[in-house]
Amino acid sequence: MCQVTDGDVEQLTKKPDLRGGRDCMKCGEKAVVVARINDPLCRECFVTYFTHRFRATIGKSRLIRDGDKVLVAVSGGQNSCAMLNLIKKGLSVAAQKKLRFVPTLVYIDEGVVTGQSRTERTTNQKTVCKYFDESGFPWHTSALEEVVNGSGTSTISPVRSCHDDGCKQSHDAVADRLDGLRIEEDEKVKRLEELLAQTKSLTAKQDLVQKLRHKLLLHLAKQYGCCKVMLGNTSTSLSASILANIAQGRGAAVPLDMGFSDDRHGDISFVRPMRELTNREVALYNRLCDVESTFIPNLSTMAGEYSSISTLTESFINGLQADFPSTVSTVFRTGEKLTVASDSGSPTQDKCAMCAAQLDTVATTSSALSATLMSMKLTEVTGNPLNSSGSATPAGSGCASSSNTSTECCGQGDGSCRSSNSKKDLPTREQIESCLCYGCRLTVKDVLDVTLLPSYILDEVGKQTRRAQMRDEIQDFLLEDS
Please, are residues 354 and 438 in contact by the beta-carbon 8 Å criterion? Predict the structure, then answer.
């Protein structure tokens, strides 16, 4: 029987009574805030503590080296603006120990997700871009719909600051340049709107938007030569994300989704230097240091507590944290103990076409996943293929283009060969789900028309399908591992 002793789990303690004046635990001056659970601090000591936690999180990881180009994702909210302020101070001349990386700022406009007008989206861009100009770092902007069409080859909004060349700009010059920002309404916007309209649940919509955002950040990092992408996730948001991921069947990816570094994408990693700080501490820091931020609505704005798994877990964590200040710390530290399972499968094991995590759908006959999949298969009335005819021509049957008169295959031996039929026909829903992890399968299940999925997902599914077919064809000629 599984037993847990009292020392294995951090005990939740009631919120202490903070009425009455208290002295700073560091210097003895009058305290203005209470950090962590019950640590009174004055303004100077709190700012020092907050800055130290941020820099220590970066330093102890030893992943960001001198001269590394880092793409800093700034949404305009409190967390990302506080992170931008800390980076600016850490790179200033007055800093005792300067940060050594080279930041490049980026703002992704997600106004199409909430149905904002062109004027509202332009106003939000102007507000965030003014923060960027005040920082003095090179910056770029993009829109979420850029990642829908194409497989990462489209031109991303070429708006950038003149700080790239070290030039100085007056306030009027910055205002004139911001007036030139425009939100283009094209097929990409319409396709993303149709995709969200064809997605039934808010949980699936939020998950899709997050995956699209991360894919776009990866593309921007490659485009601007950055090896890291810095996010503003705090321990509060990560604690809610842990519970939400487990509830959505993404337990296998929890160590990557909440750790300091997420290296599932290979040469570019996502890092989270704010993960040791809570939302409350961020709000206090912004108030004490006069850090400006803006509110931009998202999918969960004005949504009910039970509208999605993410909003429910966030409400649950915040409700407990109000009375038991160690709630976030308990959930966060428990999630830190989880590790990614080692790859025990074949070296040709594919990754999820949507989130790039290792596929966790290879199950034995007696497993719970196998029983769940069988139950879902039996309750299915009819299949829901991508194409209207309900069938797809097997990918890889023939050579690529009709103009190719040679007998040689156009592929590179990695499943990249495309027949003329595969250019017309898209993979079926069953083929797509076979290339997704369990959590992404649940998300795609809520999408009524999967032809609207981003092109990079459909392309990756087609590639994995062709590779699997090629592997089956040459199976008899492969050497078995000893």
Answer: no
